[in-house]
Design a protein that fits this description.
By secondary structure, this protein is α/β, with parallel strands linked by helices.
Length: about 750
């Protein structure tokens, strides 16, 4: 259980330390910067401890009377465990916070690893799990702090009232203070890091901090003025989210808008801040969501509105990605911009298939060619025939439709028809495929295999190599995990890679090539994504549901009426209520007089984590089952309080009222949603983990496309879906994320024996 961090004013407050040795000295040294008034009680006291300014010394053993008058904190640091235990017992009985050295079980508070610079104070705790980890993060945090932080905070405090008076609007004042602080510590926009104007602002602010003189009006006006937007053209790589560079990911995590293409791993969109705009402007052969000029204009508009924009492009922006055109347009408009390279598909997709594009003794050169040229009669480059005489590897992009012509012209220009070739549709392509054949039969082989765009065409002797077996061995040895994300990736990428349970590990790879859309909250979606990834499927979190807490006052007023029963129908309701109760300092003891009823094991477990046990949980997780059991258990004069979602159905309260019970139905949270896939990609399955998810999906997308198999997490969700469609769908027997995945497995491989 994590410990709650709380900052307390200790200035001139009495702190009692029982013990006079080195441990007591260390504790006192941690407290001294906070202005405490320390009292030390011990028969023997170290000279260094006695020399601490302002310390009161009592050279004797501890007495209960030492707790009068009441100290604000007590430290038990004697070398006698029995005495420490006795002090702890007395303090807890009198509700005095107590810390017992090296005995967490006797503590009511612990000393965190502290970082303190003037008025800046940070405490780090691992709840006792790893003091070493706490020290590690303390050291890392210390390294990040600016050298003049103490002086800076003093200067900012001295200016706060004047700034508050001169900028009365809260939002404008908050923006100003943020930009003032960023400028003071040099956290400028990465695109403007070399700006002479920004450097002058920082220099003047630095001088102002050191001399305690105010910055000039011109400098302050520049800080207040709207920020200049910027655009980063970021290569996302050509596959899983963790192929992006660290620089690209860092920019993505702090952007205010992301403009993205087709074939971008959804986990990257989750990595952007929740508040950032997500604008789909994909371009694929035969289907353009926006023209190139529209994309460039959109980037300019967003930047001119003051936003930090990431233009997320598959592969590398400058390799047939028209990144150069976008950069020229941005520069012409005066927009600060930069490019972050990515792994290009011409190299990454063959590598994924086990083909190196160069190899010693086989291929010493690489030629990447577009097969989609607008200014030639057949769409191939003017000097195409020269490629036939080159000895290295030829890689053709955007050329699947041109493959018969490519092969014919290469052979007509002298290329041997037996030259090895390969066609690969990989990365995040909707229909992965991989074929090898000699150049003369490559087009026919690709057609027979049903390869669809996008695809990479490779011609050269390296196409005969297959290094994928080595990766398989590494994977079996635990040295290589093709599905793992980068350590410390942070943000929203982490949630795609959680542990799964059950027997799914034995089915590894059984859903290879399938695309499965997922809806719901992070807790449910993350488990599905991980399990599906293990099974070889591509999971897309296409509709994200988030919990938005409603004002707590209605629920707290309802509690004042002393209901005998409190009913939760979801773990979200439990977590929301107890968070609000803690914020309003609701007495936990007063809650223990109520009886609790829940729907579902997960809801009961959430309640148990809060220290309460459900008196009633029906075996069938439905509103009807709960209403029936609650009607039988509740007395006619008992009040029932339902704490639920704002969009919950009226079935439960209606049934209870019909049975003659007094019911108050209070919504305590609402469901919001955000879609990451617009338009919807081609999917084989679509999963729903809640009734609200069904409603939100249909509200957002209008209908469920034909040809998609639908899976519901349980009967309640299935009942809701049946109100919207007459189509047949699957319902998981086990109401869990694992249950959903197992349902897909059984549907896909009903007659196989791996389950």
């Amino acid at each position: 259980m994590p410990l709650f961090p709380m900052f307390v004013d200790l200035k001139d407050k009495t702190v009692l330390i029982a013990g006079g040795g080195s441990v007591a000295l260390r504790k006192l040294q941690k407290l001294t910067p906070y202005g405490v008034s320390p009292t030390v009680v011990a028969p023997d006291i170290l000279p260094e401890l006695a020399a601490v300014p302002g310390v009161k010394l009592h050279r004797r053993t501890f007495r209960p009377s030492d707790l009068r008058p009441r100290p604000v904190l007590v430290i038990a640091a004697t070398n006698d465990r029995k005495v420490n235990r006795y002090i702890s017992m007395l303090c807890k009985k009198r509700h005095i916070p107590v810390n017992v050295a090296d005995d967490p079980a006797l503590c009511s508070f612990v000393f965190p690893a502290l970082v303190q610079r003037g008025e800046f104070s940070a405490g780090i705790s691992t709840g006792g799990a790893s003091p070493t980890a706490a020290v590690y993060f303390k050291e890392r945090l210390t390294e990040l702090l600016p050298e003049n932080l103490e002086e800076l905070l003093v200067w900012l405090r001295s200016k706060r009232q004047a700034i508050k008076a001169s900028i009365p609007e809260p939002e404008r004042r908050a923006a100003f203070l943020r930009r003032l602080f960023d400028a003071c510590i040099g956290q400028t926009d990465p695109f403007a890091a070399n700006s002479a104007t920004q450097s002058r602002i920082n220099d003047e602010l630095s001088r102002a901090v050191k001399s305690d003189s105010p910055p000039t009006d011109e400098t302050l006006e520049k800080i207040i003025s709207p920020p200049v937007g910027s655009v980063a053209l970021v290569g996302a790589g050509c596959g899983r989210a963790d192929l992006i560079t660290l620089r690209g990911l860092r920019l993505l995590k702090r952007c205010q808008a992301v403009v993205y293409d087709d074939l971008i791993d959804d986990a990257l969109l989750h990595a952007a801040p929740e508040s950032s705009l997500r604008i789909y402007m994909g371009k694929r052969s035969g289907s353009h969501a926006a023209s190139q000029s529209e994309i460039e204009q959109k980037l300019i508009e967003l930047a001119q509105a003051g936003l930090q924009v990431v233009r997320l492009k598959g592969g590398d922006p400058y390799l047939f990605g028209r990144g150069g055109e976008e950069m020229l347009s941005l520069k012409a408009a005066g927009i600060p911009c930069m490019e972050v390279p990515g792994i290009p598909s011409a190299i990454g997709i063959p590598a994924e298939a086990g083909i190196p594009v160069t190899h010693r003794g086989i291929s010493r050169s690489l030629h990447i060619v577009t097969a989609h040229t607008a200014d030639t009669p057949d769409g191939l480059p003017e000097d195409f025939d020269m490629l036939a005489g080159l000895s290295g590897t030829l890689v053709f992009l955007m050329g699947l439709k041109q493959l018969p012509l490519i092969a014919a012209r290469l052979m007509a220009a002298g290329k041997d028809g037996n030259t090895p070739g390969a066609v690969i549709s990989g990365g995040n392509a909707p229909h992965p495929a991989f074929v090898r054949a000699p150049l003369a039969g490559l087009a026919e082989a690709a057609e027979n295999a049903g390869v669809t765009a996008p695809a990479v065409i490779l011609v050269g002797d390296v196409a005969g190599l297959d290094l994928s077996v080595h990766m398989e061995r590494l994977s079996q040895d635990g040295l290589y995990d093709p599905h793992a994300t980068s350590e410390g990736s942070g943000g929203h990428m982490e949630h795609t890679y959680y542990e799964t349970t059950g027997d799914l590990s034995t089915a590894s790879g059984k859903l290879e090539g399938l695309c499965i859309g997922i809806t719901g909250t992070e807790a449910v979606a993350a488990k599905q994504l991980k399990a599906l990834q293990t099974l070889g499927a591509r999971g897309l979190w296409i509709l994200r549901s988030d919990i938005k807490a409603l004002p707590p006052e209605p629920a707290l007023r309802a509690l004042e009426k002393d209901p005998q029963w409190i009913v939760f129908t979801s773990a979200n309701g439990v977590d929301t209520f107890f968070r609000q109760a803690a914020q309003k300092e609701t007495d936990r003891l007063s809650l223990s007089k109520h009886k609790f009823a829940v729907i579902g094991q997960a809801t009961g477990e959430a309640l148990a984590r809060r220290g309460f046990r459900a008196s009633l949980c029906p075996k069938r997780f439905t509103s009807e089952a709960l209403a029936a059991e609650l009607t039988a258990a509740a007395k006619p004069d008992e009040r029932i309080l339902l704490l639920r979602s704002a969009i919950a159905s009226s079935t439960l309260p209606d049934l209870l009222r019909k049975a003659g019970l007094m019911v108050e139905d209070v919504p305590i949270y609402d469901i919001t949603c955000e879609s990451f896939a617009q338009p919807l990609p081609n999917m084989d399955y679509l999963t729903f983990s809640s009734s609200s998810g069904v409603a939100l999906f249909l509200e957002r997308y209008g209908r469920i496309p034909e040809g998609i198999r639908i899976v519901c997490i349980g009967d309640v969700t299935a009942k809701t879906l049946s109100q919207y469609t007459d189509r047949t769908f699957l319902t998981a027997a086990d109401i869990s994320a694992t249950g959903i995945v197992e349902t897909i497995l059984r549907d896909r491989f009903l007659n196989m024996d791996f389950l």
